[in-house]
Specification:
mainly beta; about 425 residues; 5 helices; about 10% helix; elongated; eight-stranded antiparallel β-sheet
Length: about 425
């Protein structure tokens, strides 16, 4: 049985680990992976068809805990304990819920010092006792319903019949119904930079680079987001060297060498391409949701990959969502004919939340049929999430899921614009 400390409006955890409001989904999953000997039966709940409308949930079924994440920001917004008998809880080091201590109304009042009565919800037959960032639900038998006064103080219970907590919620703010995921806390940075926004730099529908607006642990320099964070702007362009990228963004989360390129079969005269002794390689920046592909010979950037991190995608939970803005020039006639919110004058602005069927209505239809991508691992030859479809448009490749959400966007260096030093 887990023995955890409750910190209202902040966290639930112990000396070894802590679930903190505002933490990214992948960090919570990493905690669960490290604690797999003590935390079992973890389920991931999400909506396959409407992933931006339904909360993303980690259900710790054997411990009676739900971690509820905002579906857009994918940060923790509510910590819910719904089976009080499966976990031990304490506040300020003093237990208030154990096999020996029942979380009754009197116990909660003693532990937390209630300064106002609870709110009775007649249709649910519940009393809810609210503190800032913390609430307790007490189921009340109908014969004890308050008749003239509202609040716990208006109820009289026989000895041993006091109701116990059915559910406890930790959240940010004054109201559970209005709870929102807070900004990423500094305690979750761990020396990393996180992406606030990414702008794709394009000129006449040709991509030249990426503009990163990053948030990092701060000091007195730079533009302060809050006393412990700062915002910085960095630009990476096609043709930049490895040293340029590392100087701008820091060391990558991982470096990955391409062992083979199955897409080469689609190139003209593919049989003439002789396998090189060296291999192109990726720099993976997981907290930014971006990959850079470097040429094996020149060691310069020749491709960007932007990841949207939707549940149901093969790469889900490897990357944080890349909050990109991708402007595409379109014909004025198409702009006047369309009422899409993605349009800004004669620009189509594609984001991580755009759906491909809406984008495709405005863009000129791709000239070729999509390439079906069915990833598989060496230890598991099937992809449980199904195939994705890759559409080539200008110097971009959109990887699209079956629900029409964009899984990734690949931006490559147009041969017409390619600098000889960066050619592949």
């Amino acid at each position: 049985m887990l023995d955890l400390e409750v910190v209202p409006e902040r966290s639930l955890g112990n000396e070894q680990w802590e679930f903190v409001l505002g933490m990214p989904f992948y960090q919570a999953v990493n905690i669960l992976r490290r604690q797999d000997s003590s935390i079992k039966g973890v389920q991931v709940w999400y909506s396959d068809q409407c992933p931006l409308q339904m909360d993303l949930v980690l259900n710790l079924s054997q411990d009676g805990i739900k971690l509820i994440f905002d579906p857009v920001s994918q940060r923790l917004k509510i910590i819910e304990v719904n089976s009080m008998n499966k976990v031990k809880l304490k506040y300020c080091g003093v237990p208030f819920n154990t096999p020996q201590i029942r979380p009754t109304i009197e116990q909660i009042d003693q532990s937390f010092g209630a300064t106002h009565p609870g709110v009775y919800i007649a249709e649910k037959k519940l009393f809810v006792l609210n503190f800032r960032g913390l609430s307790f639900d007490f189921p009340i038998n109908s014969k004890y319903e308050p008749k003239y006064a509202h609040g716990l103080g208006s109820l009289q219970f026989p000895n041993g019949m006091s109701p116990v907590v059915a559910r406890m919620c930790i959240y940010a703010g004054n109201s559970l119904t209005d709870a929102r995921a807070p900004a990423l806390p500094v305690t979750c940075f761990y020396g990393n930079c996180f992406l606030e926004c990414l702008e794709v730099l394009r000129d006449v529908n040709v991509t030249s680079g990426l503009k990163f607006i990053l948030v990092t642990e701060g000091n007195i320099q730079g533009k302060l987001v809050d006393p412990s964070k700062k915002s910085v702007v960095r630009v990476v362009r096609f043709g930049d060297s490895v040293q340029d990228v590392v100087s701008s963004l820091g060391c990558p989360s991982r470096k990955f060498y391409k062992s083979e390129d199955k897409m080469k079969i689609h190139l003209p005269d593919a049989h003439k391409h002789v396998r090189s002794r060296s291999a192109d390689y990726f720099f993976n920046y997981f907290t930014m949701g971006v990959d850079f592909l470097f040429d094996a010979v020149t060691h310069r950037v020749k491709k960007f990959v932007l990841h949207t991190n939707y549940p149901g995608d093969y790469n889900f939970n490897i990357y944080c969502r890349c909050e990109f803005k991708l402007p595409i020039n379109i014909e004025p006639t198409k702009a006047t004919q369309s009422q899409s919110s993605m349009l800004e004058e004669d620009l189509l602005v594609v984001t991580a939340y755009s759906k491909w069927d809406e984008v495709q209505k405005i863009l000129t239809s791709p000239k070729h049929r999509p390439v079906i991508l069915n990833r598989s691992a060496s230890t598991n030859t099937s992809n449980p999430f199904g195939s994705t479809f890759c559409y080539g448009v200008q110097d971009m490749i959109f990887e699209v899921m079956s629900n029409q959400h964009i899984a990734s966007v690949t931006l490559y260096h147009s041969s017409a614009q390619r600098d000889p030093a960066a050619s592949s």
